[in-house]
# Entry
Amino acid sequence: MEKVAFKAEVEQVGRTAVLHMHGEINGAADTELSAAYTQAEQSSPTAITLDFKRVDYINSTGIALIVGLLARARAAHCPLTAVGLSDHYREIFTITRLSDFMEIR
Amino acid sequence: MTTFQGLWRNLMGRKEVETAAIETAEVLPELTTQIMQINLDIAPHDPLLAYVQNNSGVMEVERLKLESPALQTLRQAGIQLVVPLVSQSELIGLISLGQRMSDQDYSSDDRKLLADLAAQAAPALRVAQLVRQQQLAFAERQRIEQELKVARLIQQTLLPQTLPDIEGYEVTAYYQPAREVGGDFYDFIYFPDGKIGFIVADVTDKGVPAALVMATTRSILRATAERLVSPGAALARTNDVLCPQIPPKMFVTCFYALLDPATGHVRYANAGHDVPYCHTADGVVELRATGMPLGLLPGMVYDEKEMMLKKDEYVLLYSDGLVEAHNPKREMFGFPRLQALLAGYADGATVRDYLLEQLAAFTGIGWEQEDDVTLVTLQCLETGDRRLETNNLQSPISSLQSSEEWQMLASFEVASAPDNERQAMMQVAEVVKVLPLSAKQVDRLRTAVAEATMNAMEHGNQYDHDKPVQVSVAKSETAVRIHITDQGGGKPVKDTAAPDLEAKLAGEQSPRGWGLFLIKNMVDEMNIHQDDVHHTIELIVKFEEIGD
# Structure
């Protein structure tokens, strides 16, 4: 399997901003992910959705990045939702209690 | 002694004076004014003081016939008139005037004006003085409160957030600080082989200095205990490291016990701390071990003792605050009372609450707590050699190895470079394809291997390209075993407590730190072996039963 660098695109769906993510969420994804999130915040959305459908790998550093996004969302009182997580990563979100703070669909 | 500042002021012409009378020292352009400040110390018995307190109005300095050093000072400074400022029968100041610049004498109109001025100024000055006193007192109270807050914060961040969850045992803890943080702390240390260290300690002094010494001692003790294991050796080493760092006249009493949950075996050592008690079927036993408090003299040796904690027995660790509590009659709670109470109480899970009730009954309502109160109890619920549950870091290393025969399937290396954990992950996944693992187990194992490899590369080998990570895969009849080895041996083992997501979201902790926690939750067993050079994370996943 080839390594896929991380990419993220923001789509506006009504008042919700959707962050479509591709590739691996590890330490190297920091800059791109943070920039994409900032872009998503620009429209002052009422909610932000993180789309993991095309993410094939999240490691512990990636979890730390998501914790960082969650902290930003909470500071802005903006609910975060995660969609497209595989069963394995759903389990990881549960174990780490991220699922206590964001909706997983 | 009262100190006043005298003002020597020019009054020229009545009109200007009138407008200037209510305001202080308002200078009009035509006037030249000379203001001189005199530091006037009036001794309490100086007759001038009594004189101005008992007489009001404008006084001519020349005419006062008093044996008064203060009066001398005024005369020497050229003061001609003084007017006392009195508010509520208290002398609070003096208006002093020197010679008129026009060389004329002060007229009766001038004097009337001065008297009026004094009458107006006195209460205003008094109010200003009172306000200033209040502000100073308030600022001082703020400063003290702030220091208390800081001390409390330092201490709270260092106390354990959770209690040990040990199969077959129950642990309780209670901590109540005195108003001025008194320097108590307690701690739990988790070892990779399942043993657990229990620490209760007390720092002399109060407030921020005590909290800082507590923080330092705790760090040193944790690092030392993880490396040396033996309680006596750990205290000795901690003492040696602490001595040069601790402020003079401060010291730390500390009791440290090491429990092996699998057998109930307890080793302990004591650095001058209150003797813990063990409630046994035969009565209350003291856990005595000699040793000096930490931080007094280097080179101390600490006795190490041992005991077996059997079913239903419990150990109580506590601090001064309990036994030194006083009742309204100034009697002390004391050790005999504590021992007697424990003798009659068999339930370790609730002995804490029982003691607190007794303490409250003893001290009565409105008790001013002098020192921190700390209580930690450890009770054994089941006895004997226990096989601990899976998915638990506290399981003994030998549980599987001794009875299993391992067949090596693969062994390879990955260079320590970012992202190479994926290579390790994929290679292991490839090797275990032939094994009876479910898809879920494989997914989890991949994550565990990736995280363990990342940990090895980053923390063990510091991403040094010359230090590869070694990975081996072996199988037995019932499980698969992965070894991930780096060259980071000889270091204290990292804390594997669950990361606190709330703390991370609040910005109190780094968002990182999930690696070991994830690994632990992805496999049936995670063990750590290390020697002085190498450090190995061992992952074990058991094959699921057919039909599961």
Observations:
- The radius of gyration of chain B is 38 Å.
- The CA atoms of residues 50 and 138 of chain B lie 33 Å apart.
- Residues 1-31, 385-403 of chain B have pLDDT under 50 and may be disordered.
